[in-house]
Request: fold
Amino acid sequence: MASTSSASTAPVARPVAPMVRRLAPLVIFTLLALLPLASALGLPGHWLTLVTRAMIVAIAALSLDLVLGIGGLISFGHAAYIGIGAYGTGILITEGRTELLVALPVVLLACAVFATITGYVSLRTRGVAFIMITLAFGQMAFYFAQALSAYGGDDGLTLYEKSTLLGREIFGNRTGFYYIALGTLAVCYWLVRRLVASRFGRVLRAARENAVRVTVTGYDVNHVRLGAYVISGMMAGLSGLLLANQTDFVSPAYMSWPRSGELIFMVVLGGVGSLYGSILGALAFLVTEDVLSSLTQNWKVIFGPLIVLFVLFTHGGIAGLVTKLRGRRDG
Amino acid sequence: MTLSLLIVQLLNGLQFGVLLFLVAAGLTLVFGVMDFINLAHGVQYMLGAYLAVTFVSLTGSFLLGLALALAAALLLGLALEFLVFRHLYERDHLDQVLATFGLILLLNQAVKMIWGAAPLSVPVPEFLSGNVRLMDGILYPVYRFALIAAGLSVGALLWFVVEKTRTGMLLRAGASNAPMVSALGVDIRKLFMIVFAFGTMLAGFAGAMAAPILSVEPGMGDTVLILAFVVIVVGGIGSIRGAFVGALIVGLVDTLGRSSMNDLLRLFMAPASARATGAALSSMLIYLVMAAVLFVKPEGLLPAKGRS
Reply:
C-alpha cells in the first residue's frame, strides 16, 4: 500500500475540469443567493428552511472534504464537531450568554482542543485504523453528551433563545438566517479553496499521494495533517453553532455515528476532493431525505439501498470528473 | 466496593469481553484476510439475536432455535456477500465504508418493520436457568457462566482452526499476502467465502447467545460494532489473539469502570456531582484506554505478524 502510484494522478491534463471547477461554485452560489426571490414568488417557506439547513450541513461536509478529499484521511467521527459546536452554543445560551462574540470563540476553541487531542492520537495510525479510531472518538463525544444530565442528557436540550450579535437578534428572521448561512458557507468555501491552493494544501495533497516522498522532502506529514484536521474540526463546529440556532434544540443525536456516515456520503455523492461537490452533496442529501421521509416513515429502507447502488455503480458522484483524477490511495 | 461485588463485576466483565470477542474475531478476520472493512458486521450480530427470538419461540426449544438461527444468519450473510460485498473487495476503503453503511440503514429499518421497534427478549432456557452459589451470599446466573464457557470454547476452536489446520494456514497466509496465495494456486474467492461465512457465523452466534440476557432491539448491533472496533484497534488489526486480549480488556474496563467510578469519585466529590461525572467518565473510559494504548503502541498490543 505504500507505493500508491503517481501514474494515476494527472489532475491538470483534462481540459474541462478547470473550467467546471471555476464556474460550478459561481453558479451554485448565485442560484443559492437567488432562492429567497423564488420564495417571495410563492415557493413554500419550508424550502427556505430546508435549504438553510442544507447549507449549514454543507459547511460540515465541506470541512470533511478538506480532510477526506484533499488529505485522504477518512474521518468517521466528524459529526462530533457539529455536536460540540451545537452543545457549546446551547450550554452558553442556557446559562444566559447569548452573545455570539462569546459563543464563537468558545466553540472554535473547544473544537480545536478536541481535534488536536483526538487528531494527535488518531494520526498515529493510518488506513482502516484511522477510520475506526475517529469513529470511536466520535462515539466518545456522543456518550459524553448523553451523560450530561445537567444539560438534558439523552433527551437533549431545548433552547428558548437564539444567539445574538452585540445584543441584536440576528437569527430571528428566516430570510436573514438564510443569508447568514449562505454567507458563512461562502466564506468557508473561500477559505478552504485558498488553503488548498497554498503551500500547506499542496503538501497535504502530496502527502495523500505519497507520504514517504513528502517526508523525504523535509515536511512533517503528521503536522500538516493535524493542522488540516484541526481547521476542519473548527469549521464543522461553526456548522454546529448555526444548527443549534436554527433548530432551537441540541441533542446527542447530532453526533451519533450515522450522522458522520451521512457526512461522508454527502462528500462522496458530490465528488471527493472537489469541495463545491460537498455543497451539492449536502443539498442533494437533505432534499432527498426530506422528500423520501415525507413519502414514508420507513424512508431508510429506500435510502440505504440507494447508497449501496450509488457506490456499486458510480465512480465519482456529481462532480465525478474531478474524482476520476484521484488515485487509489491508502485508506 | 465489597469483595463479593467485585467478583460479580469481574465475571460480568469477562462475560461481556467474551461476547465482544466473538464479534471482533469475525471482524478482524475478514479485515485481516480480505482487507475489507465491514460496518455491517454489527447488523449481522443483531440479525443473529432477532433470528434467535423468532426461532426459539417457533420451536419452543433453545438449542434447536439457536441452530436454526445460526443457519439462517449464515444464509443471510452469504446472500449479502453474493449481492454486495463480493463487488467491494477490490474497491478502496471509502467505498466499502459507504456501501456497508447503506446496508446498516436498510437492515436496521427493515428489522424495525418486521419485528417492531419495541425491545424483544428470549427466555433463558430451562436447563441453564437458576444460579450458582459462588460463596456466601453470592449467586451468579448459570446462563452467564454458559455464555462465558461457550465463548471461550469458540475461541479455543478458532485458535485450533487458525493455527493447526490447513485452512487456517491459508488464512494466515492470506492475511499476510493475499495476491501471493492466489498466485500459488489457491482459490482466493473460495477462501474469502469461507472467511466471510465464518465471521458471519461468529457474529450471529454472539447475537443469539446474547439474546436471553440483553434486550433485542433495532440498532443493538451498532453499539457492539463500535466496541468491536475499539477492541480491534487495541488488540492490533487482523490479529485474533489481539482481538481476544483487547476484548477482555475492553469488557473488564467498561464493566468495572461503570460500577466503581461512582464510588471512586464519591471519595472527594458530592454524591450528586459524583454520579453525574461518574456516568460521563465511565462511558468514556474505554476510549481513553484505547487512546493510551495507541499512544504507546500505534499498531495495537498484539499486531498480526507479517502485515506491513
Notes: Chain B touches chain A through 46 residues (CB under 8 Å). The first strand of chain B starts at residue 131 and ends at 135. The first helix of chain B runs from residue 3 to 34.
